[in-house]
C-alpha cells in the first residue's frame, strides 16, 4: 500500500462520507494484521489461565495498580511498584510533584472502566472527565480543550503542536469516527485514539495520562480486554520512553509505514501487559502474591 497523506485525512474522511469505515484502511497496512493476531493470542492466554476463572477481580485490581504506575512513569514519575502500593498521600507539595502525577494516574485507571457507556455516545465527554480526574484542582482550565493563545504543559514538546483551531477540528473528527463505530480491530482503534490525542494535546496539561487512559477505555469497551486485566501502560513503560516517542513520531509523520509502526508498538505494549498479568496469575497460583 502506498503512502497515506496523513492520519488527519483518514480521520476527517469519517465526516465527509469518503469512507464508511476509514479505520479499516489502517487495519490493512502491512504488518498490522500480524500485530493484531499476536495481541489476540497474548490476551487469550491470560483469559485462559485457570487463576483468571476464579480470581479475576484480584487480577484486574493488580493490573490497574501496575498500569497506573506505568503511565505515571511515562509522564516522569517513575516510582517503584511497592512505593505506589504503600503510599496514600498523592497530593504532592506542588503541581510538579511526582506524587501528583502518580495520584492522577491512579484516579484515571480506577474510573476508566466506569465510562464505557458514555464513551460510545460521547467520547469528548469522557475525555473531559478524564482530564478533570487527572488535573483535579491544579488548573482552572480543567475539563475542557485548550483555546487559542493558551499554553500547554507539554511533555511531548519534541513534536509539533497543532494550533487550537486545527486541534478542535481533528478532535471533533475523531469523536465522529468513534461514535459512528468501526469494524477495525480494537488494537487499531485504540492506537489511533492514543496517537491522535498525543499528537493533538487537546488539554492544557496531563495529555499523556489522558491519552493512555482513553486507549484503555477502547481496549476494554471493544471486548478485547473486557475485564481490564492487560495493563497496556506497563507494556509502554517497559519498552521505554525513548521508544515510545520514536513510535509516536512515526505516527505523527502520517505515512503508512509510520502509522503501521505505531500500531505495532501499541500491540507489543498490549502483549507485554498481558504477560505481566499472566505472571501475576502464576504468582497467585503459587500462593506468592
Automatic annotation (TrEMBL):
Signal peptide: none annotated. InterPro entries: Fido (IPR003812), Fido-like_dom_sf (IPR036597). Residues 122-265 form the Fido domain. Residues 141-162 are annotated as: Disordered. Residues 141-150 have a biased composition (Basic and acidic residues). This is Oxidoreductase. It comes from Streptomyces sulfonofaciens.
Amino acid at each position: 500500500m502506498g503512502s497515506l497523506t496523513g492520519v488527519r485525512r483518514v480521520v476527517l474522511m469519517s465526516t465527509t462520507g469518503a469512507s464508511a469505515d476509514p479505520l479499516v484502511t489502517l487495519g490493512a497496512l502491512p504488518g498490522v494484521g500480524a500485530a493484531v493476531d499476536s495481541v489476540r493470542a497474548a490476551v487469550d492466554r491470560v483469559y485462559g489461565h485457570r487463576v483468571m476463572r476464579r480470581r479475576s477481580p484480584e487480577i484486574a485490581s493488580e493490573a490497574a495498580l501496575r498500569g497506573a504506575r506505568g503511565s505515571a512513569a511515562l509522564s516522569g514519575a517513575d516510582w517503584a511498584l511497592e512505593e505506589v502500593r504503600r503510599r496514600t498521600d498523592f497530593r504532592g507539595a506542588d503541581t510538579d510533584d511526582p506524587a501528583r502525577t502518580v495520584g492522577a494516574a491512579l484516579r484515571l485507571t480506577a474510573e476508566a472502566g466506569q465510562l464505557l457507556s458514555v464513551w460510545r455516545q460521547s467520547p469528548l465527554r469522557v475525555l473531559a472527565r478524564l482530564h478533570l480526574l487527572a488535573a483535579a484542582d491544579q488548573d482552572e482550565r480543567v475539563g475542557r480543550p485548550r483555546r487559542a493563545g493558551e499554553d500547554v504543559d507539554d511533555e511531548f514538546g519534541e513534536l509539533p503542536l497543532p494550533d487550537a483551531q486545527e486541534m478542535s477540528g481533528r478532535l471533533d473528527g475523531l469523536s465522529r469516527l468513534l461514535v459512528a463505530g468501526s469494524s477495525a480491530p480494537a488494537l487499531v482503534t485504540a492506537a489511533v485514539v492514543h496517537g491522535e490525542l498525543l499528537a493533538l494535546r487537546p488539554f492544557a496539561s496531563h495529555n499523556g495520562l489522558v491519552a493512555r487512559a482513553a486507549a484503555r477505555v477502547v481496549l476494554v469497551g471493544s471486548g478485547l480486554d473486557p475485564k481490564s486485566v492487560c495493563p497496556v501502560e506497563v507494556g509502554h513503560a517497559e519498552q521505554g520512553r525513548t521508544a515510545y516517542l520514536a513510535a509516536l513520531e512515526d505516527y505523527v509523520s502520517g505515512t503508512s509505514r509510520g502509522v503501521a509502526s505505531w500500531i505495532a508498538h501499541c500491540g507489543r505494549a498490549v502483549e507485554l501487559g498481558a504477560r505481566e498479568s499472566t505472571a501475576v496469575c502464576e504468582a497467585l497460583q503459587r500462593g506468592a502474591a
